[in-house]
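Please fill in the sequence for the structure shown.

STRUCTURE ENCODING:
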């Protein structure tokens, strides 16, 4: 009875919610730049390639962050790592908003990128390790929910601050990032370290105390025993080499693979460029484009909420196959809409937005949360820090490659004469007026079909490599790899 009282589900939810603020920052700081670009470009009078440098700086920061902090979180613990990221988020937000010149902005974005990279692996890791087995999937998906809320909030706040007559509109957009940064910093300060990490440092009493507050009473001693066994088996230091051992190759292949397919179905072409895509298909003006993007952001959030209820019930594999099939279908349909946009006329743009909604809905219930969940689950304790950091590192690399190549792929797959022409008002520095330009955007139909094709490969990959981790204790997953088990048979 006494034990029952100390086990506190609400506490776990609070813990996860605060930690997941790291996800909100991740989403916010990725999304915020899309609305800020037009303003700092004019404010600093930048060329497009300089804009690209500034955008890419954040991404490079994220790659570096994900690369170096995996080890640090194993050494210093999950909590301290997240606290450090929170400080970087706050400082980076102020720094970005304040930047007096483009070079400073590059450094500031690189800096905040570090925090995005760090939090993108340490937050799901923290949550997975502190959650009771039965709630693990739902709680890690909370991280994904906050990413999507962060993206939506950044679109909305960009919209709120975007004033065409005020060139410095981009500054308050960046400053806004201070608020969630402070919440994470203050909240995390009061949260406990994870029992699993404490155990790996031989701090059994502390570990048990925390476990008693968060795990089902019947499972506490069981969990302790499992952690102990696991640790005893691998006394040797877990280094980079360890993660490339043959018995861990499957886990590594799963982590990198799930991130590959999460990114290569083209999710971020929609997240970063949806205003642009909607303008191409016939919505007029940047504001209409941004509004259409906001609607995508809302669908993303709503369906991620739905996924919270499904992920621990339906399981990972079912959601993956349902989600990916829906993604392939809507990418094919989008391709058709763009291929026949002249024949479709005005209906085309509404069909396009409908299929983007369907696409994002299927992504939100499957690959979105699954990517981060799976990388936090498949590695054994001793290499979990490094392992999930390799997972998020791949996420950022693939993310970068897709974002960087989207318009090139569009161009590559546009049949001659099939390009869609739009008329956009661009700022002319010489005359300080807006001049209408005709722009040939190419036709994204082929690009969408290309992503759909990769999705089909993803179905095959998933059949062989995606493990069903629902209701399986993390320690059991490891045993399975040790016995040379196939992912499909978990
Ligand atoms: C992905 C991001 C993406 C977001 C969209 C995340 O799981 O990693 O790249 O922007 O989902 O909701």
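FILLED IN BY: designer on duty
SEQUENCE:
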């Amino acid at each position: 009875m006494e034990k029952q009282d100390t086990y506190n589900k609400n506490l776990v939810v609070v813990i996860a919610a605060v930690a997941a603020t790291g996800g909100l920052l991740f989403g916010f700081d990725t999304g915020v730049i899309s609305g800020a670009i037009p303003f700092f470009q004019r404010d600093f009078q930048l060329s497009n390639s300089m804009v690209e440098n500034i955008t890419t700086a954040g991404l490079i920061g994220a790659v570096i962050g994900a690369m170096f902090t995996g080890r640090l979180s194993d050494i210093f613990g999950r909590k301290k790592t997240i606290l450090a990221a929170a400080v970087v988020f706050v400082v980076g937000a102020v720094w970005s908003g304040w930047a007096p010149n483009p070079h400073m902005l590059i450094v500031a974005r690189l800096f905040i990128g570090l925090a995005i990279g760090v939090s993108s692996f340490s937050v799901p890791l923290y949550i997975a390790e502190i959650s009771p087995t039965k709630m693990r999937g739902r709680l890690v998906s909370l991280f994904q929910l906050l990413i999507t809320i962060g993206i939506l909030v950044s679109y909305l706040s960009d919209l709120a601050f975007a004033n065409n007559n005020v060139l410095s509109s981009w500054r308050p957009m960046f400053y806004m990032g201070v608020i969630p940064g402070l919440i994470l910093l203050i909240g995390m300060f009061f949260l406990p370290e994870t029992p699993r990490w404490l155990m790996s440092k031989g701090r059994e009493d502390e570990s048990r105390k925390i476990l008693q507050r968060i795990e089902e009473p019947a499972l506490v001693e069981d969990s302790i025993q499992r952690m102990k066994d696991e640790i005893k088996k691998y006394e040797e230091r877990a280094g980079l080499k360890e993660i490339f051992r043959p018995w861990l190759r499957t886990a590594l292949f799963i982590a990198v693979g799930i991130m590959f397919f999460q990114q290569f179905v083209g999710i971020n072409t929609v997240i970063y460029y949806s205003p642009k895509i909607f303008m191409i298909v016939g919505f007029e003006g940047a504001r209409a484009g941004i509004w259409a993007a906001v609607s995508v952001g809302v669908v993303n959030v709503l369906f991620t909420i739905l996924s919270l209820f499904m992920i621990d019930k339906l399981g990972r594999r079912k959601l993956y196959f349902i989600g990916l099939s829906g993604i392939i279908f809507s990418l094919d349909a989008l391709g058709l809409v763009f291929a026949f946009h002249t024949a479709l006329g005005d209906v085309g743009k509404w069909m396009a937005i409908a299929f983007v909604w369907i696409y994002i809905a299927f992504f939100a219930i499957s690959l979105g949360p699954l990517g981060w969940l799976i990388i936090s689950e498949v590695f054994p304790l001793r290499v979990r820090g490094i392992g999930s950091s390799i997972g998020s590192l791949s996420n950022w690399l693939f993310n970068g490659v897709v974002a960087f190549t989207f318009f090139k792929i569009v161009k590559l797959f546009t049949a001659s004469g099939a390009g869609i022409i739009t008329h956009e008002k661009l700022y002319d520095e010489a005359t300080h007026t807006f001049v209408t330009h005709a722009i040939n955007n190419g036709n994204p139909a082929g690009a969408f079909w290309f992503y759909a094709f990769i999705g089909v490969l993803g179905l095959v990959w998933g059949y062989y490599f995606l493990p069903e981790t629902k209701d399986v204790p993390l320690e059991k997953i490891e045993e399975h790899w040790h016995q040379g088990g196939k992912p499909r048979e978990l």
